[in-house]
Structures are given as C-alpha cells and as structure tokens.
C-alpha cells in the first residue's frame, strides 16, 4: 500500500451526488418532508435543480443518504433513488471542514427499524488501481448473507431490505477503497414501492 | 492504438442502463406514452423494476434514449432522467445481434425540433487508459459552442436544449473511446420542467 492510499484510508473524505424522485404529484412535499427528518449537521450538503451533493466522512455520507431515502420511501409512494458515490484523494476543501466531526451516526438509529423492501442495482468503478476485482467479488459474496444478489448487465442487482442494502453498499465501497483503489466511484439505483412489483407495469 | 482498441472503434457496441422518472401521479401513462412513440427496433431493450437497459450500436443507443427522454419531457411534467452509458470491448452477446443494423437513425428526425430546456450533469470515467484527460477537456470545450457548461462537484453541468445536450454527450463519449479508452463509463442526470427553475423549491 502506498503512502497516498494510507492517507486516504485514514481520512475517508467521501462524497455523493444523488437525486430522489417520488413519482407523485406530491413530490415536493415528500422530498421536503424527508429532508426535514434527516440530521445533516455532520456533512456539507448542497441541492440544486439536478442533484444533491453531500460531502464529509464516508460514514456520514452513507448515514445521510440512507436516511433521506428511507424517510421518503416510508410514505408508501413509488420513490426512485439514484446516486454516484465518490472517494478520491484529491482535496475537497469544503468537505474537509466536516472531517473534524466524530463518527457517531446521527440518523442510523432513527431509520434502522423502517421496513422497506426495495430493488436495487449497483456498479463499482475502481479508477485508482489495486486488487479491486478480488475485493469486489469478496464483497458481493459477503452481501449475499444479507440480501438477494444477482448479476445484470452493467451492474449487480440487490433485492431486500433498504437498510441492509445501504449497509452492504457502504461496506463494498469502503472495502474497495481499503483494497487499494485511490479513486473509487459507485453508482446506485434503488426503487421502492414500484407498481412493477405488483405487476402493473415494467419500469423503474 | 492497440488491436483491441481498433476493434472497439470499429464496432462500437455500447449500452446504457437508465431510468426516467416523471414526478407525477400520471407517471405510468407518461412512461408508456413515451415508449410507444420511440422506435426501438434497432436495439436490444429490456426493462425491469429498477432500470431499462438498451444495447446495440452506439448511435442507436443515444438515438433511443434521447427520444424517450424528449417524448416524456414534452408532456410538461417534471421529468428526471438518469443514465450510465457504457462501452467496453468484452463481448455482449445479445447486443451483438443488433450490430448488423445500419446506422440510419430511427428517432432523431422526429425529436430534433422538440424545444426542451434542461439542466444536466455528466461525469466521464475512462477506465481503459488512453490520453483521456486531454480528450475530455477538448470535448468540454467543444460542448461550450452548443450549451452552457460549468464545473460542479464530481461532474460537469450543462444547461441548454435537450437535443444539443444529448448530441454533445454522444460526441464526448465517442471521442473518449476513440482517444484510446477501451472501457468507458459516462453517468448522466437530466432534469426537465423542474419547479426549481421557477424558484418553487430546490431539488431535482
């Protein structure tokens, strides 16, 4: 492991660009309601008209995105979540201000009991080298203990509880970084309460 | 250029995993309506409850996704589009069946006059080497002739007409592949008719 990778492993300044889409006329209320229930004080968060960006410690980035998704999905509306998680050594000045935060999660305990079955796909892109393929295969194996895992084109499909899937994704992402990838990107699509699950139609 | 890259440049078997989300109670009708208007006969397309996958020649993959987005957005509803375009040499057997198709676009002329102002973000991940940074910078410069371009965290923001943005994205993607990246991934988020554009709220 190089010094550069060591530095990354210690600090874990991560970020995510995501969007959440309730397929409902009430989409504004659902998004605003979910955001109101989530404590974002340990991350830097910025929303514009295309995506929301969250930066800070990796654990808080996952804590916040998991909570926003669950609070939106528990409304029972069909909600889609799309995210690109990113971790790279190159400095992230605004995010760094939030690296002084401790690792105590602010939202996890409030959402851990929300039962929300979801369908998900993720793809991992280790851009920074390392034995990443072994890491990915090992992590996909590990994920099989928690959720249903199946291969699809361009990604791996996960079916199960949202909490287990977010926790699994965080593990995969972190393990890839620790496997030596100095720049790692992970794309995630999650669908909750889709009418497709009831056979009404086929689309995310 | 290696023989492998040469083979890729000739064939351009590309794929995309995407989803389209109308933020409306009528989301099923909007999606079904858009799909009905698009000719997908030159690609392999498969939809499940998380994403839709389209595979075939690169030109048809962009032609089909651009048309689906525009037919959904022209309803005037707030529509979000998320896609991961992918091109890699490793064989894609079901997609290959569609490589015999010619390059005449089936949808482009039907959507080229649809005026649809959008906000978009894209990120390019050349996983296969090559002088890709020079290619990316050159392509971002080239895109400035057509749409407004600005840097954002983890991606590049584009504002302008949807047709110009899709055409620009196709050019960027193809140029990156031709620049020597044997495996290229590009993530795209596009938002149309967002209330944020009118200042109602801030979210995609």
UniProtKB/TrEMBL annotation, chains A, B:
Annotated Gene3D superfamilies: 3.30.70.930
Pfam families assigned: Ykof
Residue span(s) of domain Thiamin/hydroxymethyl pyrimidine-binding YkoF putative: 13-92, 119-196
This protein's name: YkoF family thiamine/hydroxymethylpyrimidine-binding protein
Species this chain originates from: Oceanobacillus longus
């Amino acid at each position: 492991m190089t010094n550069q990778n060591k530095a990354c492993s210690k600090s874990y300044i991560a970020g995510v660009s995501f969007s959440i889409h309730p397929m409902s006329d009430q989409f504004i209320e659902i998004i605003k309601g979910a955001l109101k229930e989530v404590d974002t004080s340990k991350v830097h968060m910025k929303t514009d008209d295309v995506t929301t960006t969250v930066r800070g410690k990796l654990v808080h980035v996952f804590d916040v995105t998991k909570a926003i998704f669950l609070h939106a999905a528990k409304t029972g509306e069909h909600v889609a979540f799309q995210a690109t998680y990113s971790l790279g050594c190159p400095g992230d000045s605004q995010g760094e201000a939030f690296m002084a935060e401790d690792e105590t999660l602010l939202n996890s305990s409030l959402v851990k009991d929300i039962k929300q079955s979801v369908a998900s796909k993720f793809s991992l892109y280790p851009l920074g080298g390392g034995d990443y393929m072994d890491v990915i295969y090992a992590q996909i194996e590990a994920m099989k203990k928690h959720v249903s895992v199946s291969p699809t084109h361009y990604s791996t499909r996960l079916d199960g509880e949202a909490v287990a899937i977010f926790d699994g994704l965080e593990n995969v992402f972190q393990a890839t970084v620790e496997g030596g990838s100095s720049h790692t990107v992970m794309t995630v699509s999650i669908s909750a309460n889709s009418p497709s699950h009831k056979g009404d139609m086929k689309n995310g």
